[in-house]
Amino acid sequence: MLKVSRTKLAVVIGGLALSVPMSVGIASAQPDLGPVINTTCTYDQVWAAMNAERPDLAAQFNAQPMALGMLRSFLNSSPADRQGTVNQIAAYPGAQSYLGATLQLAGSCNNY
Question: Looking at the whole model, is its pTM more than 0.85?
Fold first, then answer.
């Protein structure tokens, strides 16, 4: 299994967050990220949901193969570790738009 530090994951996902189109919208308050932290979805389910619902985001992940490994590592980590990672990601400017997309996927990945 690929072991990646939370900091590296936050940096890569933070970089992706900056590249997500701002048309997604920015919420004024921190959203409830419990569904992301406590997801029971597998990597394959999240990847299928991303390709079906957010092909733009999937293309960005495909352009950075290390991000795919980090996504897998995130999903294989415990909820406590995910909480720490999400806290780091949320601190990045522009992360709100990424977190919105992530919440969308967390809400639907069980359908894949």
Answer: no
